[in-house]
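Section: protein folds

Sequence with per-residue tokens
===
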Amino acid sequence: MMAGMKHFTLALALLFCLLPSPRAMRADADALRYAVAADSNVWFYASEEESAKLFLIPETYYVRILAEGEEYTAVEYLVNDPPYKKVMGYCRTEAITPVSFLPERPFLMKQITLQYSIPVGGTLDGGFSSIERTFVYYGMRYDMGQLYLYVLSDGVFGYVAAEAPPEFEKNVDYLEAVDVPANGQTEPSDSDMGTPNVLAIVLICAASVAVVVAAALLLKSRRQPPPDSEEGL
């Protein structure tokens, strides 16, 4: 009986060591980490310099975190899915708010069509008086009072002048899921932590049942009497 209990304890300990921990499963979920531009003043930089500002990230949308730094965080924005193209750069670490969930709509997937008009008398009879062109929109900036949109066209990035920023729907998921305590650090909500914990509990319960069954079979085999010895020996 004591030997059977020792085998049971050893098997149980080995199985628990092999089970993935909730922390490990949480790390898999955190492989893709995002941070939200919670206001309209979050810049996307080409390099870790204040003079390298490219555009303001659309408010309430996200960047994917590549590497966190004390002053600047390496990030990427958008995806490689034509006509869209991923861009990699930096954001000020203090300007973005990391979240502990995978947003359903991390990037603003938006195309804009601009019309360029030719002054009256500037074309021949039958010529075009205006031209329309479609761009992938990334963000905006003001320079000397003029609004510029940072766009992609035919694989080339650049700025186009505009009279007004494009309209878009804002995200609200980070308002419901991010809990910012007094120390300024973000903490995941209960719903964010629920899936890994439930999975861990299910795996542990299944492993426990398997160990109990194995131990019962082991004890049963030990309790069977040895076969009768042959008569006449």
The mean pLDDT is 77. The first strand starts at residue 34 and ends at 36.
